Amino acid sequence: MPCDRLEKALSLELDELGETGTLKGAESVVTRVIPADGERGPRFQLAGDTETQYLRMNSNSYLGLSFRQELIEGEEEAARRFGTGPGAVRFISGTYQAHVDLEDRLAAFHERQAGMVFSSAYATTMGVLPALITADTAVISDALNHSCIINAMRLSRPGVKHVYDHLDLGHLEEKLESAAGTCRRAVVVTDGIFSMRGDWAPLPEIMELARAYDARFEENVVVVVDDSHGVGAFGETGRGTEEFTGTDQVDLLVATLGKAFGVNGGYVVGGKTVIDYLREKSAFYIYSNPITPAEASAALRALELVDSSQGLELLGHLRAMTARFEQGLVNLGFETIPGEHPVVPLMVRDTARTSSLVEHLMNHGVLATGLNFPVVPKGDEEIRFQVSADHTPYDIDYALGVLESFADR
């Protein structure tokens, strides 16, 4: 049956996205990775361009681990032993020893009782929150939380939903006070690192507020943090926003294996009873294949590397390159949001200028991501640079030179 009327409606929507400047359009396709050489870090070639070697500053691979030989060997060895896919969901026959070992190691890394691996961090949040949120639950969420949290709240249909202003503790307390006595359970949920700006949640203060209101909810105030951009890239030993802010452990911590750890998949760590419950109730875990045994083995190698002297060296280099780039932006007169996280935003605050600067960067061999409304609020248009431990001083100075040439123009 032809879908001509549907296609016409969808085409009009695509045209509208193009007119408003929010159409993502064709994706860049990486055709070749050129290994680091001398003073230069890795470079990338894209389909349709056989000449340019691009410096990638729009990757979540904060430690550059996906190119490490230890991870590649771990994944290849497990693929030869167990094949390329798990063959089933976990509760049927898709659980392999590599999955169990990884979950145990993740729990130990975060000093929790138990851990649980999902197919992605997005799936983790979508699987965790609906399983814990009932019609008698109040959910309280930061206004700039990630899409996965927003969609998980929609799927959950909580009894009460509150959104507090970004990082505004006074507003969070108002929402807790408003929810007290209306529901048996409260869930306070926030990103650890906010991926658009590189700023972080004040977890010690959030935990203090949650504990202050805990007795007013029959089934507790539960704090859930998605620290996918923090774990592995933030904190002295890569434990993320908890470590950086010096907070006590949050109740449930969600993170990813697909960013700083350089592999694929997501996970949650927490108390054993909660994790056992999630294995029985989380639809995104029960009805979806896990990451492959090979990916789990590579992730285990990544954890071991991060939790070693080599990991400390990588994290130290990452902090140094982040500081070098951030200070370079300031020296050139650009506006940024100071912070130690390797997401370094260049605040442009204008859609046309943001697009022009992204084009200029690409024309000079630098890949960076422009963020315009409605991805960010009007007036907050920016270019999100992401520094990696793969970057060298030469790379950072090259990118700054390209930015300087745009400013001069």
Question: Which characteristics define this entry?
Answer:
409 residues, alpha/beta, Aspartate Aminotransferase, domain 1, Aspartate Aminotransferase, domain 2, 2 domains, seven-stranded mixed beta sheet, four-stranded mixed beta sheet, 15 helices, 16 strands, 44% helix, globular
Task: Walk me through this protein's architecture.
The chain has 409 residues and is an alpha/beta fold. It folds into two domains: 16-56 and 311-408, Aspartate Aminotransferase, domain 1 (Alpha-Beta Complex), CATH 3.90.1150; 69-306, Aspartate Aminotransferase, domain 2 (3-Layer(aba) Sandwich), CATH 3.40.640.10. 44% of the residues lie in helices and 18% in strands. It is built from 15 helices and 16 strands. The chain has helices at residues 4-20, 69-82, 90-94, 97-109, 121-132, 147-156, 169-179, 203-213, 241-245, 272-281, 283-286, 293-306, 309-331, 351-363, 393-408; strands at 30-34, 43-46, 49-56, 114-118, 137-142, 160-164, 185-191, 193-194, 199-200, 221-226, 252-256, 266-270, 343-347, 366-367, 369-371, 382-386. Strands 4-12-11-10-7-5-6 form a seven-stranded mixed β-sheet, with helices on both faces. Strands 1-2-3-14 form a four-stranded mixed β-sheet. β2 (43-46) and β3 form a beta hairpin. α2 (69-82) runs antiparallel to α12 (293-306), α5 (121-132) packs parallel to α6 (147-156) and α7 runs parallel beside α8. The termini are far apart.
